[in-house]
Specification:
Elements lengths: L10 E3 H15 L12 H8 L7 E3 H15 L3 H17 L11 H7 L1 H6 L4 E8 L2 E7 L6 H17 L7 E6 L8 E6 L1
Antiparallel strand pairs: 1-2, 3-4, 4-6, 5-6
Helix pairs in contact: 1-3, 1-4, 2-3, 3-4, 4-7
Length: 190
């Protein structure tokens, strides 16, 4: 069983939250008031108050908002979380962070500087496994959530699509801190 550990130190950039809310608006409307019953006041404030892309948002608020979106949308939360990650990649790597994109996936993941642009916690390590495959290991997460891991897989999938990786693209999480593993590990194929 996967666990969630939330605290008060980890934070993500506002641009990630903005991408997630952008996706939610397509399904629940511009207002987003339907999220209110699922959120505490602190988290709901981030929904109704414009957040600057470069602002830091508490990680625990992002996770609560992601769960609220999944609850309001209904169905499988995993599908929603993966879509939130895809939207974050498409909006951010196609916009404010487009300079991170490489024409070669190994180069993009080798640099992994995009990790620190989006969050203030965790340590990424990339390993080239084959000509069209690699492995991302994310360790030292002081806070974690299955919702974030699943959205991370969606982010990596969309990043590979943005780079026009030949495909088919597949991203699989093979270990997870939420399940008690030492690191979260994502195997990437394209």
């Amino acid at each position: 069983m996967k666990q969630e550990k939330l605290g008060n130190k980890a934070a993500v950039k506002g641009t990630m939250l903005k991408a997630h809310l952008s996706w939610a608006r397509e399904y629940v409307g511009e207002n987003l008031s339907s999220l209110r019953p699922h959120l505490d006041q602190e988290s709901f404030t981030y929904v109704i108050t414009p957040v600057l892309s470069m602002s830091w948002v508490p990680f625990h608020c992002l996770i609560k908002i992601d769960w609220a979106i999944a609850n309001v949308i209904g169905g499988q939360p995993e599908r929603v979380f993966r879509e939130l990650g895809r939207r974050s990649a498409s909006l951010n790597l196609g916009g404010i962070y487009k300079y991170f994109i490489s024409d070669e996936p190994h180069r993009f993941f080798d640099q992994m500087t995009v990790h620190n642009a989006f969050q203030n916690f965790g340590q990424p390590v990339y390993e080239r496994v084959g000509e069209r495959s690699g492995r991302v290991r994310l360790g030292q997460y002081s806070e974690y959530s299955p919702a974030f891991c699943i959205s991370g897989a969606g982010f990596y999938e969309e990043a590979l699509r943005i780079m026009k990786a030949p495909g088919p693209v597949a991203v699989t999480e093979t270990s997870c801190q939420c399940a008690g593993d030492e690191v979260c590990c994502f195997d990437l194929k394209w």
